[in-house]
Amino acid sequence: MSKPNQTLGEFIIENQSDFAYSSGELSRLINSIRLAAKVVNHEVNKAGLVDIVGAYGETNIQGEDQQKLDVYANNKFIQTLTNREIVCGIASEENDDFIRIEGHKGDHQNKYVVLIDPLDGSSNIDVNVSVGTIFSIYRRVTPIGTPVELEDFLQPGNNQVAAGYIIYGTSTMLVYTTGHGTNGFTLNPALGSWYLSHPDMKFPESGTIYSINEGNYVHFPQGVKDYIKYCQEEKDDRPYTSRYIGSMVSDIHRNMIKGGIFMYPKSSKANNGKLRLLYECNPMAFIVEQAGGKASDGFQRILNIKPTELHQRIPFFCGSKKMVEKAEEFMRVSE
Ligand code: AHM
Ligand code: MG
To answer: Where do the Fructose-1-6-bisphosphatase class I N-terminal domain residues begin and end (predicted)?
Structure first.
């Protein structure tokens, strides 16, 4: 139940019983993410003012340029989670390997692992366009008291206990789920508090927006080409509107409010597309499904996929249920 002016802190306390294994640890974890998000938000907001924008001179494991703010956000989230000794392991899109956190007693007592894309869409920072943070939380599968292993991170998205994103947009929002619906909080920068502004978000069952990088059209599989043509056809409520920010969190956030589909398919240039299953697709799929939407790789539900590697990429179709189903239909026909 949403109450007027409810803060994220109040909401977490009130809904603590929603958490699968309610020991307070998961609440503390989300609390520390909201804290780190405020600090990152502060840096992102002043990106145009200070000499922090621009390539850092390093590339991440996928061979892409890292921006300075990527590094800042990565460090900030890792530092906050590590210092508070809440999690036993962190995997980040920006790091080659996962990090083990043994705890100050060295006894590996923490239960949760966090997977994070600290600053998604960071190439948009230089041009003052929205970026986001995406996080995904699992309960470890290896025994408590031992160091975390790769298998703790390679769990299907179905096992997520919580996931969320922060959108650094015209206003800053934190949207998350613990498997009991999706709720959105807006940061009041003057007070530094997050307020429940979008309770129990609902992805419209259908919509009229399609979001895809059409510059890659000639490289797309036939099913995607056909679906794009379907979106552009003059019939019923079509042609649809094309909207593509190039910042997945913002594209999906908009579609979740207005109704639409976001697609990053495979192409003849990139056999598995671009987006990462663990840091981007699984958490977004969980959030979107909890709001009544759908997420697929074109053929199967994203959350059912068993990951095989930390930085695995996957084609991604995500949005209004009926639109994703339609896109899947086109994919099947052209197979
Ligand atoms: P990043 O994690 O390196 O920032 O890349 C992910 C971003 C998504 O936010 C966005 O949807 C996509 O890359 C845009 O890619 P493209 O420029 O190929 O359309
Ligand atoms: Mg990313």
So the answer is: 7-199
The tens digit of pLDDT for each residue in 270-291 reads 999 999 999 999 999 999 999 9
Q: How far apart are CA 137 and CA 161, in angstroms?
A: 6
Which residues line the pocket of ligand 1, CB cutoff 6 A? 64, 117, 120-122, 213, 246-248, 264, 274
Distance CA 332, CA 321 (A): 16
Contacts of 75 (CB under 8 A, 6+ apart): none
User: Considering only CA atoms, which residue is closest to atom 6 of ligand 1?
Assistant: 121
Between 229 and 13, the more confident residue is 229
Please check if 10 is assigned to a binding site.
no
Residue type, 315: P
**Residue 188 CA to ligand 2 centre (angstroms):** 26
Q: Is 65 labelled a binding residue?
A: no
Question: How large is the angle between the packed helices 25-45 and 68-83, nearest 10 degrees?
Answer: 150
